[in-house]
Design brief:
Layout: E1 2-6, E2 9-18, E3 21-30, E4 38-42, E5 46-52, E6 60-65, E7 72-74, E8 83-84, E9 91-92, E10 96-98, E11 111-113, E12 117-121, E13 126-134, E14 143-149, E15 184-188, E16 193-195, E17 198-203, E18 214-218, E19 221-223
Antiparallel strand pairs: 1-2, 2-3, 3-4, 5-6, 6-7, 8-9, 10-17, 11-16, 11-19, 12-15, 12-18, 13-14, 13-17
Length: 227
């Protein structure tokens, strides 16, 4: 295994055996995710890892590819890298996030789960897919639905946009976000149904090469009486 520390994250590159086939995988431990941190598994086939910090810049983490011999990859890249390009094609990066089991204070009582609300990044137009799992069973999802995000930016131009016209009517000025990467949206999702516990798998866009974020999820429920 290879270890590296960069940008407040731990990177571990190891051989990974699945279904009789051994490949190289890179795991990332991010202590900022949750109370105890979380591990993220990638299919980056990095062998040697090299972290360094040029003067007055952030840490850079480079990995030498094993399967793609002769290629050097910038592992902890910024938001602009939204596709894989080991060869000549730009391949979509499959990604997903699975929530913990939401069971409230009583894990065995059935609840009617309402419409959760999700805070997402909205700088690009894309579609995510949500799979809903129930009662601690990940064998198959009980419900699935798409979540469409409409990207938006400010159309105001300095020296042209106005808050109010000379005749007193409203102008075309709108508030601009401080940074496009901070444009967020709150999406209200469909009703999840009845279950003792709920978990959601949120799958990133597959039709477009776009970065995506889910920054918060709020669940609503009504407990049923035990019999």
């Amino acid at each position: 295994p290879q270890l590296a520390w960069a940008n407040e994250k731990l990177y571990v590159s190891v051989d990974w055996t699945s279904d009789g086939s051994t490949t190289r995988r890179t795991f990332v431990y991010d202590p900022s995710l949750g109370k105890t941190g979380a591990w993220i598994m990638t299919d980056i086939d990095a062998g040697p890892l090299f972290a360094y910090q040029p003067p007055n810049t952030e840490h850079l983490l480079l990995g030498g590819c094993v399967a793609n011999t002769g290629r050097l990859i910038h592992i902890d890249d910024d938001d602009d890298r939204v596709f894989d390009k080991y060869g000549t094609d730009e391949d979509n990066i499959p990604s997903h996030f699975v929530t913990p089991w939401m069971s409230t204070r009583n894990p065995v009582v059935k609840k009617r789960w309402g419409k959760p609300q999700m805070v997402t990044l909205a700088k690009s137009s894309l579609q995510m897919t949500v799979e809903v799992y129930k009662d601690y069973d990940f064998a198959d999802y009980a419900k699935t639905f798409p979540v469409d995000i409409t990207g938006r930016t400010s159309a105001s131009v300095w020296g042209t946009a106005t808050w109010q016209n000379d005749d007193g009517s409203l102008g075309d000025g709108v508030w601009s976000s401080e940074d496009q990467s901070k444009v967020t949206d709150v999406k209200r999702l469909p009703t999840l149904g009845t279950a003792r516990a709920i978990s959601m798998k949120i799958i990133g866009p597959t039709a477009t090469n776009s970065d995506w974020q889910v920054n918060a999820i709020g669940f609503t429920y009504v407990p049923r009486r035990m019999r």
